[in-house]
Amino acid sequence: MAVRRNSGILGVIVLIWLVIGVVAAVQRDYFKESDANCATAGTIALTIVAGPLNYAGVNPKVDDCDVQIPQPSK
Predict the structure, then answer these.
(1) pLDDT tens, position by position, 50-72
(2) Exposure letters 17-39 (e unless 16+ CB within 10 A, then b)
(3) Considering the domain boundaries, does residue 50 fall inside one?
(4) Is the pTM of this model over 0.85?
(5) Count of CB atoms situated within 10 Å of the CB of 40
(6) In which region does residue 69 sit, left (phi positive, over 0), alpha (psi from -120 to 50) or beta (all else)?
């Protein structure tokens, strides 16, 4: 039973961590930009995952996404 209690607490901590990351992304106006590209999506995702670290000076950014999309066979 102790394992279940610990996993519940861990789940709450992770949820709070991610909510803090979303708040940081909103404060940086990442959701208001009209540019929808890989770099913007990556920056938003990294900001959310960084969570409270954003308030400790971490400012994750993705500058370029060089994604090679496979072409259909001929």
Answers:
(1) 999 999 999 888 888 877 778 88
(2) eeebbebbbeeeebeeeeeeeee
(3) yes
(4) no
(5) 17
(6) beta
| Residue 68, token pair as written in the block | 């090679």
pLDDT tens digits along 20-29: 999 999 999 9
CA 21, CA 23: separation in Å to the nearest integer?
5
Tokens of 67: 């994604």
Residue 73 vs residues 15, 40, 70: alpha-carbon distances, Å = 43, 30, 9
In a domain? residue 43:
yes
Domains identified in the chain, total number: 1
